[in-house]
Design a protein that fits this description.
Blueprint: H1 2-22, H2 37-50, H3 74-90, H4 106-142, H5 149-153, H6 159-162, H7 165-189, H8 193-210, H9 220-228, H10 234-246, H11 249-254, H12 258-275, H13 290-297, H14 306-330, H15 340-377
Length: 378
């Protein structure tokens, strides 16, 4: 009974936070001719409702792919179609072919926000609750500019001006494949639930950092598996989630969402600091780095300062993110460098993500070695 009560309270808080944030502005509000991601979602409802399935993904007189062409997998398209049926019942003008482009109203905003909340209640939140309950049972038994490599490297060398497009694609593929290969090989050779979760993080981060075309919000695809290990390495997971939100700072400012994002980030940080005691869980064991440190100490006996280094890196990272946020909000960039702050946010975030990619791969690699050594001892 107590557990069910706690779950109910947490879910209600989560829903309340979501709905409170949804009262704020959205991407592209009042900004013709393309508006923004909000219009993309609305337009996909228009397309899927009014056109036959075989025309959804192809350019035609009724489906101009240059205007928010449907570029998500079919499951997303069917979800848009389902929402479109409901929208047509409420107000056909919301999804009328062609004439509904750029449609904006408070009633429609309420409808769009509600579809997201209902999807969360039906799919995402139940999945999180089931995972957390399962995690509890298992532990009891056992007692922006996108912040990826290419945008960041573009600061120093304009790759797109030097290499042909097809070479860029090949280079991107090779880097992505090689960066996720070690984690996948380790998981294949030594499968485990723990290894699977960390491999999810590593692979998602590899795709974000090295893929040819990435949206800044794609970092959320990395943040989701990081949430799965929040209870295992709370300090590093909290740090990563803070950086992931910071990396979207230019987008959040553009869409008028700076205040709600700052408020929710501060609330998240306070909850993690109090509930998970993140600053107390920075030992080698709690950072999952003891096997790695032991292997290093075979050659360097004095290598006992890794947790302290990570704490200093976190402090530097946090101070940098705060300063860049304040500079972006309060200062005007030089006329010669209008994108200065956006580029700095991108570059700083990318450096953090590279560090996390190395960190998670160290855990994956040395965890399998540690388990093999334990088997030998047993």
């Amino acid at each position: 009974m107590e557990k069910g009560y706690l779950v109910t309270v947490v879910v209600l808080i989560g829903v309340t936070v979501r709905w409170t944030v949804s009262l704020n502005s959205y991407s592209g509000a009042g900004k013709p001719p393309m508006f923004g991601d909000y219009e993309a979602q609305r337009h996909w409802q228009e397309v899927t409702l009014n056109l036959p399935i075989h025309q959804w993904y192809f350019n035609s007189s009724d489906n101009n792919l240059q205007y928010w062409g449907l570029d998500y997998p079919p499951l997303t398209a069917y979800h848009s179609l389902l929402c479109a049926y409901v929208a047509k019942v409420i107000n056909p003008d919301w999804v009328a072919l062609h004439s509904s482009r750029g449609y904006e109203s408070q009633a429609h905003k309420l409808f769009m926000r509600t579809t997201v909340l209902i999807a969360d209640l039906l799919v995402y939140i139940p999945a999180v609750v089931v995972y957390c309950c399962r995690l509890k049972e298992t532990s009891t038994k056992k007692k922006d500019k996108v912040a990826n490599i290419w945008c960041s490297f573009n600061i120093f060398l304009k790759i797109k001006d030097i290499l042909p497009r097809h070479i860029q694609i090949i280079l991107s593929f090779c880097c992505t494949f090689l960066s996720l290969l070690p984690a996948c090989v380790k998981l294949t050779l030594h499968p485990s639930p723990k290894g699977f979760k960390y491999c999810l993080v590593s692979c998602a981060l590899s795709f974000f950092l090295f893929s040819f075309q990435v949206h800044e919000k794609s970092i959320l695809l990395v943040s989701l598996p990081v949430c799965l290990i929040l209870s295992e390495i709370p300090f590093m997971s909290t740090w990563f989630l803070l950086v992931s939100t910071f990396s979207m700072l230019p987008l959040l400012i553009k869409d008028g969402l700076l205040v709600p994002s700052v408020v929710t980030v501060m609330a998240f940080f306070i909850v993690c600091a109090t509930s998970f005691s993140i600053f107390e869980k920075v030992s080698e064991e709690e950072l999952q780095l003891k096997p790695f440190s032991i292997s290093i100490r075979k050659n360097l006996p004095g290598f006992t300062f890794l947790p302290r280094i990570i704490q200093y890196l976190f402090l530097i990272s946090a101070i940098t993110m705060v300063l860049l946020t304040l500079m972006t909000v309060t200062l005007d960039p030089p006329q010669r460098l209008p994108d200065l702050f956006s580029v700095l946010v991108c570059f700083v975030s990318c450096l953090n993500f590279l560090f996390f990619l190395i960190y998670f791969n160290i855990i994956i690699f040395w965890d399998s070695k540690s388990r093999r050594n334990q088997k030998k001892i047993n």
